[in-house]
């Protein structure tokens, strides 16, 4: 085996590892995507528009909000601003990932950025370090989530009404339980425990006052800053 | 009334993509200062906790600490399972089962 074969093999392996680790994400996306597809077409979007939003925006909570606002006849501008505010938290994930994807080829950056979601970021922080080709792993992970989001939206928009009477609410807890496992895996010191509690408390407090996802952004900024301060003491 | 949804979707895509792209584009080439890297280290724990806390404890915009909150009970069990097993898949599985049971009986 030549040297080149070996490295491309590693890359493929890391890509496949990424696909594998997306499994809980896919399980979480399927019911949400189907519900989105169903609601969007009911709100008056065509099937094409519904799946186009999943393909181009690829950010679940903002898509649900947009559909809701379309149904309530909100103006164009409010929907775009709301979308921007709700998705602004991706800034944090993007900064954090920049460190991990440092030596990636140039053409990877615009693709990897597009695949940043709460779920792909959370899963990647747990295992991206273990992989030689970090961007291969992240692309495998992100693309699998993307495809499952697209397919489940398509499914929901076309034949979702068949499933309307099935109760799949037991799947509501898939993503929270995945986040719990990832959080536990991230906690290594007592300082981490403290930061986790502080961030959670701030997040709840802020969500009582501000709509959008400001609670996630502000709580994280405060908690991380506190982490640095107590680390230096 | 919005008629041209395509334009709306395009603008939504644009404002969503910018915060995803700009930091990664700017910082994946630059050498970041040490304090900043230190700070970034705390982002994962901070973000995960900030997403989780309201999704478990807030029901219909109100804090719900009662044992009638199936999210809270399932979350406690998931924390225990995750801490012992360190296994994502097992935690998710236990989460689905316990939440399924709790939301039926509570």
What's the end-to-end separation of chain B, in Å? 42 Å
Number of strands of chain B: 2
Overall mean pLDDT of chain B stands at 90
Q: Biggest sheet of chain A, in brief?
A: none
Shape of chain B: extended
- Multimeric organization: heterodimer
Q: What percentage of amino acids of chain B are in beta strands?
A: under 5%
| Largest sheet, strands/sense/barrel of chain B | 2 strands, antiparallel
Number of domains of chain A: 2
The overall strand count of chain A is 0
Give the helix proportion of chain A (percent range): over 70%
User: In order across it, which strands form the biggest sheet of chain B?
Assistant: 1-2
Distance between the amino and carboxyl termini of chain A: 53 Å
Count every helix of chain B, treating DSSP H or I runs of 4 or more residues as helices. Answer: 5
Task: Give me some keywords for this one.
A: 233 residues; 12 helices; 0% strand; globular; B: 106 residues; mainly alpha; two-stranded antiparallel sheet; 5 helices; 2 strands
Question: How would you describe this protein?
Answer:
The complex is a heterodimer of chains A (233) and B (106). Chain A is mostly helical and 233 residues long. Chain A is 76% helix and 0% strand. Chain A is built from twelve helices and no strands. The longest helix of chain A has 26 residues, at 134-159. By secondary structure, chain B is mainly alpha-helical. Chain B has one domain. Chain B is 75% helix and 4% strand. Chain B has helices at 5-27, 34-41, 43-57, 70-85, 88-105, and strands at residues 58-59, 62-63. In chain B, helix 4 packs antiparallel against helix 5. Chain B is extended. At the A-B interface, helix 2, helix 3, helix 4, helix 5 and helix 6 of A face helix 1, helix 2, helix 3, helix 4 and helix 5 of B.
